Amino acid sequence: xxxxxxxxxxxxxxxxxxxxxxxxxxxxxxxxxxxxxVLAGVAAAMVLVLLGGIxxxxxxxxxxxxxxxxxxxxxxxxxxxxxxxYMTFWMRxxxxxxxxxxxxxTEAALDGRARWGLGLLSFQAVGREGxxxxxxxxxxxxxxxxxxxIAGGVAGLVVSIGISWSIFHLGRRLxxxxxxxxxxxxxxxxxxxxxxxxxxxxxxxxxxxxxxxQLWNTSGALAEKSTLGDIFHTFFGYADRPTALxxxxxxxxxxVAVGLYLRQxxxxxxxxxx
Length: 274
Known about the structure:
Elements (H helix, E strand, L loop, with lengths): L1 H27 L6 H27 L5 H28 L3 H14 L2 H30 L5 H22 L5 H30 L21 H10 L7 H20 L11
């Protein structure tokens, strides 16, 4: 639940921020009539992502417990970790210019076929965040027992909608740079846990037969399949019987990724208004 809450919160705020900037700019230039075009693009993207996620989950369930599922899980873990790391750094590097870029693209859309242009702009923005969320959610479902996944996602989405509403109404008075810095660091920890799961699968498949010795066994004190153990495993990558390679990947990734991320110059403010 914790992992999906943070994922949906982060992705929801990023997608909602883009929509809020678009709506805010349209309101400033007296083009509120195009609100419906932006919102239509948002709705289309959400429907497409939802249907795609359901189709992927139903398809994978038919291979439950098989080698095919393990292989797919592994690639999902690797993809999720790579995308999660990339988009976290990308937002930190581009947050200062995102509002200006969106205004330029909005003006270009208004100069042409505004309805289709604005709808496509919001569709692309929300669709990208939605696809990322779908990949991360699949990775979480594979890595955990699935308890609370939906509840955490819904809660994160509700909170992100509230923050997006605040972005639209408060604009430059909101300090989103601090928000993305904190959430970004948390997601790096989550990505490290996903990599640990990928390494575990690769070793089980026999594709990475190195450093396979078990370091410890804490299943008696905190089993990975218990409720608390499941939470720690899903979000922090906890393993009750880790191999040397799993621990090494976890430590190296966190040391490098979080170190580089926190050394970057923080972005103090993201504005939705001029």
